[in-house]
Design a protein that fits this description.
heterodimer; A: alpha/beta; Rossmann fold; 6-stranded parallel sheet; B: 367 residues; alpha/beta; Alpha-Beta Plaits; 3 domains; 8-stranded mixed sheet; 3-stranded antiparallel sheet; 12 helices; 20% strand
């Protein structure tokens, strides 16, 4: 049973941060939910989609973040409550709409959740989305606890309705993906009906609209002055105050406790960080002579506080500010209790050691040598491994120093050993195709290298189609390879327009990738990357012709496939395996390098790791000796 | 043979130098070297120091005299045509075979006969048009399949890759029809210390070859002029015609040979062998006689097969006129002289003939 349907107000439930956000939306009576999957945000819509039928609400996986925000805004403009969720990169995708819907305003509560990924654990960049709130003049909330994740979400709908503006909420990986206790509140009856009235136009009397937006922001500031999400703990007369938001709250509290500074250091925890609740802050910094600002990624709070301190210099007097600018905290990457404690100890002239030096030395001596080297790789049975081998082979056969422009998805690992280092550029969704369309037009400047753009099936719909159309329209020489594994695999195999099912798992119309390509007017071939030699030959042939072309490598993610269809047993006939000899040289375990195949150094033969192997059988087709056998063919 | 190198050396000395003949000897013996159309590439170095690929390649150093001794039991007495027992004119008696063949149909007739006799169990051949411009290697398991491969295509295909694939199941009596470079590789495979299916090849029929065209060049030339999939026959009639005839279902088109010459594979310029000197039997055209072949019998086993075929009425032969033999010798010698000249131009050293290891005496004849 989902924690989102428990109707027991006051009950305390263990929840993942993203679940708590979803529960907050349910407690706000949300009607419309849309998202494009992206770590660490995906579980918000997944949780809501799971209870959509139960509550009679609407949930969709949108084609991209921009569309998700626009669709949610339509619900808002019709008087419904709507939520969108995305990872930090998604905020960039929908920024164009964000920077105009702020001017037109909204009606029903519209909550915009941006989940940042400090240290880019599962991202191609590290980005502090809070800057967008300041950029777009939108109110910003930052939950610090699991309880707040829920309660703030609920309040964000009310605030959005009061202001007639989308309300932005920023989470981070450590909140979205960890779990804590959340006290539930009532689930309200829903009964809104949708009706569109009025005019929502950005672009008419823009300066006046912009000015009105600033007024709304002032109204938000007033709301924030009395917000329950801002609080101060510690001695009333503290000279040293930590100012923090979001994940920094727990880290700061632990650091102060670890250094035994509870009696000297106060913590000013802010939940509403744009616009700043200025009077509230001034009130708590009156006694302070030094402050340390603790936040994750950019010195966003730090800069805004510094502006406030400068403006209030007469009232507050000189205050020494420590943080990213002073070098006490990094200003990039994730933070933790240790980093905060070190900063605090450094400023206060205290000694702080995470662990005893002797212990640390002994621990690394014992632990490190026994850890196997793990190179980031594709899963066992991943079709991308075969696809990238085919691409590598075709480019090598072509012999003109061709290269691959990459994109965002599991196949981004193709930049490393898993994909034989084939991806030479990697940026954002759709960039591979756009870049390729440019490379493919450099012939008049002496450029003679063929360019292959790879993109996933979900990425194709999300952002790659305009690049392909551009290549077609401008006669660019591009070979686009769509690595179609049947879902948005990297984020948990969420469905997309060609998956054949919707966010609730119900059958959905299929938008065929090859039909889209045909309509654009490019040559398109569909091949199975597990038929490796055929795939290589087709790619080679396509590289010989000018213009924009598309190869769809279609093979379902094998992790999903074998769970549904059962696993075939694969084994090595050790009589036939020639191992290190000429004619093989450990191709399967050394070069193709599927984690399901291991090398037995004593027997000097390959063996299949039954636990890891998914039974896809592609290795059997590649073994030069026919030594790998798939039971039942 | 000089061995002791691996695929990196093959790549450096042969592939990157444009010397690959696309014979396919190095293909389908490991997962690292691939061929598509007539392009061969090392996809990833395997790390093996002494590889079959380098050992088998017809463009890595080859001791010609040692190869002659191994195949013919002696060094060649004829510098222009290699070792042989007889040179005659021949044609298939079966007019059906002749009508499908490029010239006299001797190759198709002999192979069909050898399979029917049980002398060979299968034949590795090249199908000249495989639904497109590119020829493809094919294994004939039945004698009736042989004639499907009648006719010429001037693009070289990786016939020996087909042999390597076919030999993954053990066979002991296989016939092969190939070009001179492919036969050189095949003989190197048979002489190699490495294990190879080529050791099961019993009958080797070589074709005469002046040069081969690169697929890409010819494909791009014909694209827009002829639908590559409609091509039924290609022919380069003897001089002084100086044309390429492309026969589609809708009729023949002629293209000046000078427009095509740019697509000749660079490796053909250093090729020393016009008449498949290391084959058991070599077959080519006879100038001015479309229905006949020149037939060079080189080994005693081949001679026995030919005599039997003649006795059974499979082929008929007649003496090759002295003038024709003279032209053949002249053409072969010209190819050798040109090749040596080209090699020396590349190396800048008369003693360094790249892949050719010739005795000082032999070398002197062509310089």
């Amino acid at each position: 049973m989902s924690t989102l349907t428990i109707d027991q107000p006051g009950k305390s439930v263990l929840m993942m941060g993203n679940e708590a956000i979803a529960r907050g939306a349910i407690e706000a009576g949300v009607d419309f939910c849309a998202a494009y999957p992206g770590t660490p945000s995906s579980e918000i819509l997944e949780s809501l989609a799971r209870v959509a039928e139960h509550f009679g609400l609407y949930a969709e996986w949108s084609t991209n973040e921009m569309v998700s925000l626009e669709a949610a805004a339509a619900a808002s403009l019709s008087g419904l409550r709507a939520i969108v969720a995305m990872k930090q990169n998604g905020v960039n995708v929908c920024s164009d709409f964000l920077m105009t819907v702020n001017l037109s305003g909204t009606k029903g509560g519209l909550v915009f959740v941006a989940c940042d990924d400090p240290s880019a654990i599962s991202s191609s960049n590290e980005q502090d989305s809070r800057n967008f709130a300041r950029f777009a003049d939108l109110p910003l909330l930052e939950p610090a606890t699991f309880q707040e994740a829920k309660d703030m979400t609920k309040w964000a709908f009310e605030l959005s309705e009061k202001l007639g503006l989308p309300c932005m909420m920023r989470s981070v990986t450590r909140l979205s993906h960890s779990r804590g206790n959340v006290k539930l509140a009532e689930i309200p009856e829903r009964g809104r009906s949708a009706r569109f009235e009025g005019v929502y136009i950005a672009g008419a009397f823009v300066a006046a609209q912009h000015s009105a937006l600033h007024q709304k922001l002032e109204q938000a500031r007033e709301e924030f002055e009395g917000s329950e999400f801002n609080w101060y703990v510690g001695p009333e007369e503290a000279k040293f105050v930590i100012v923090t938001s979001g994940s920094g709250w727990f880290y700061s509290r632990e650091a102060v406790a670890a250094l035994g500074l509870d009696a000297e250091v106060g913590i000013l925890k802010l939940g509403t960080t744009w616009p700043l609740p200025e009077r509230f802050i001034i009130r708590h910094l009156k006694q302070a002579t030094e402050i340390l600002i603790v936040e994750e990624i950019d010195p966003f709070l730090e800069q805004n506080i510094k502006v406030l301190l400068a403006e209030q210099a007469k009232t507050l007097g000189p205050i020494e500010v420590y943080g990213a600018r002073s070098g006490h905290l990094p200003g990039f990457g994730d933070i933790n209790q240790d980093k905060v404690a070190k900063a605090l100890a450094n400023i206060r002239g205290l000694e702080y050691r995470t662990r005893d030096e002797g212990y640390a030395k002994r621990a690394s001596e014992l632990a490190l040598p026994s850890l196997p080297i793990r190179i980031p790789t594709f899963c066992a049975g991943c079709p991308h491994r075969a696809s990238l081998w085919a691409i590598k082979a075709a480019l090598k056969l072509d012999g003109r120093n061709g290269f691959v422009t990459g994109d965002i998805g599991c196949y981004a690992l193709g930049a490393g050993p898993a994909g034989y280092f084939q991806l030479k550029t990697l940026h954002c969704m759709g960039a591979g195709t756009g870049l390729a369309s440019g490379f493919g037009k450099l012939g008049q400047f002496g450029f003679d290298q063929p360019v292959v753009a790879v993109c996933g099936d979900s990425t194709f719909f999300h952002a790659a189609i305009p690049g392909l159309i551009n290549a077609r329209f401008n006669r660019s020489n591009v070979l686009m390879v769509v690595l179609d594994n049947g879902g948005t695999a990297m984020t948990g195999f969420q469905p997309h327009p060609s998956s054949g099912c919707d966010a609730l798992g119900r059958p959905a119309p299929v938008v065929e990738i090859e039909e889209v390509c045909k309509a654009i007017g490019v040559e398109v071939r569909v091949r199975d990357p597990f038929e490796v030699d055929q795939a290589i030959e087709d790619l080679y042939d396509m590289l010989q012709d000018d213009g924009a072309k598309v190869m769809v490598f279609r093979r379902r993610c094998y992790l999903v496939e074998f769970k549904e269809k059962g696993k075939k047993k694969v084994f090595v006939d050790s009589e036939k395996c020639i191992g290190d000899d000429c004619g093989c040289a450990r191709f399967c375990s050394r070069v193709f390098n599927c984690p399901g195949i291991i090398w037995d150094p004593e027997a000097k033969k390959a063996i299949i790791d039954d636990v890891v192997c998914t039974g896809c059988g592609v290795c059997a087709t590649l073994c030069p000796m026919g030594a790998i056998v798939v039971e039942g063919g | 043979m000089e061995a002791g190198k691996g695929c990196l050396a093959l790549e450096k000395e042969v592939l990157n130098e444009g010397l690959c003949t696309s014979c396919g000897a190095c293909v389908d013996i490991c997962p690292y070297i691939k061929v598509v159309k007539d392009r061969v590439a090392v996809i990833e170095p395997c790390g093996i120091a002494e590889g079959k690929c380098y050992d088998f390649c017809p463009r890595t150093p080859t001791d010609i005299a040692a190869l002659d001794r191994r195949i013919f039991g002696k060094e060649r007495s004829d510098s222009s045509l290699g070792s042989y027992i007889s040179i005659e004119m021949a044609q298939a008696r079966d007019s059906e075979i002749r009508s499908r063949a490029q010239y006299g149909g001797v190759v198709s007739a002999l192979l069909t006969y050898a399979m029917d006799l049980g002398e060979i169990g299968a034949a590795v051949l090249t199908r000249p048009f495989n639904g497109g411009l590119m020829p493809a290697s094919m294994v004939a398991e039945e004698s009736s399949q042989v004639v499907e491969c009648a006719g010429s295509n001037y693009i070289a295909s990786a016939t020996l890759a087909g042999l390597n694939r076919a030999m993954k199941q053990p066979r002991d009596a296989v016939g092969v029809v190939s070009l001179p470079c492919q036969i050189l590789a095949l003989r190197k495979m048979q002489a190699s210390k490495h294990e190879t299916g080529a050791k099961g090849v019993k009958v080797v029929i070589g074709l005469f070859c002046t040069w081969a065209l690169s697929y890409k060049g010819l494909y791009e030339f014909l694209r827009g002029k002829v639908g590559p999939s409609s091509i039924k026959r290609l022919d380069i009639p003897p001089p002084p015609a100086n044309i390429l005839v492309v026969d589609t279902g809708a009729g023949a088109m002629e293209f000046p040979l000078d427009d095509i010459r740019g697509f000749v594979k660079p490796t053909c310029g250093i090729c020393f062998d016009m008449t498949s000197e290391f084959a058991d039997i070599s077959v080519g055209m006879v100038e001015g006689m479309e229905d006949w072949n020149t037939l060079i019998v080189r080994t005693p086993e081949a001679e026995r097969l030919i005599e039997k075929a003649k006795a059974d009425g499979i082929i008929e032969t007649k003496p090759l006129e002295e003038a024709h033999l003279g032209h053949l010798r002249e053409a072969s010698l010209q190819k050798k002289t040109r090749a040596i000249g080209e090699i020396v131009k590349r190396t800048g050293d008369e003693r360094d003939l790249l892949y050719l290891r010739l005795s000082d005496v032999e070398r002197g004849k062509f310089l």
